Amino acid sequence: MSFSIDNVSQFINTYYLDPIRGDEGYNPVNTITWAIILGICIFGVFRLLEKLEVKITPRFIASVLPFVLAGSSLRVIEDSPADIFHPPFSYLLITPNIYFLVFVITVGCLWISIRMQKAGLVKDFHLTFAGLGLVCFFINLAVLLHFNSIVYPYVPVFVIVAGTGITFIFYLIARHFKSSIFTNPLNLSILMAHLMDASSTYIGVDHLGYFEKHVVPTYLINLTGTALVMYPLKLIIFIGVLYVLDTQFEDDERSLNLKVLIKMVILILGLSPATRNTIRMMLGI
């Protein structure tokens, strides 16, 4: 029994706890685990939003995005060499723990915003909700700029221009072929977020000496010798995913709400690392 317990303990430490303590990134085991947990959480969030009577619309998604920026910038604070936070609290700011922390903060702000609307204190909870997220984001930026200097100011320019530029070219092609799926603003936003993530990976890995932490991208970058491979990888994956989402879901309201929620999660999974990578490189962290 002790041998089995020791093996289980070693397994958990090797594949789950050590990567968090050392901020070592992902391995095949924890990647699959976090993906399963994410899938379960999507349905949990779906039920929670139903209970809060929140309709998952593009407007709601827009009000969530400031919290993505806030969470990503908070993660960079932990990366900062200024050692602003120390263990064990700093472990909360390492992926994937930080996702749960930001989720709790986001849900708390959403609940407060909805209660304020119901009490007649605000007319629209979306604006209040987004405003709280922006306040968190700007506080994080202020902290980062206080303890760090801007080293590579061209990084955010490149990431935004490259991501939006390739998305715009894709939009023109989709419009030429009269594709309603790939001219949809939400779908284009998803592609743009992931292309900005690809852009941040490319400039970081190929030009600034950073390295990729995810399993599949690392393999492909090592195989091809360049992080440019992230562009076709992102396009192939998410063109396929968006096509399936927009053609295979039922048309009833509940299914449509779930579809939009899944799209929101996909958008966040692109925008979050893009924001974190960009801020880190801009500050030379």
Question: Please, what is the oligomeric state?
Answer: single chain
Let me know the average pLDDT.
Answer: 89
Distance between the termini: 45 Å
Q: Rounded to an integer, what's the Rg over CA atoms?
A: 20 Å
What order do the helices and strands follow? HHHHHHHHHH
List the helices and strands and how they pair.
Layout: H1 2-21, H2 28-51, H3 58-79, H4 97-118, H5 125-147, H6 154-176, H7 185-207, H8 215-224, H9 230-248, H10 253-282
Helix pairs in contact: 3-4, 3-5, 3-10, 4-5, 6-7, 6-10, 7-9, 7-10
Question: Can you tag this structure with a few keywords?
Answer:
membrane; 3 domains; 285 residues; DUF63 domain-containing protein; single chain; transmembrane; mainly alpha; transmembrane helix; globular
Structure overview:
By secondary structure, the protein is mainly alpha-helical. The protein folds into three domains: 1-52, no CATH class; 54-148, no CATH class; 150-284, no CATH class. It contains ten helices and no strands. α3 (58-79) runs parallel beside α5, α3 (58-79) packs parallel to α10 and α6 runs antiparallel to α10 (253-282). The termini are far apart.
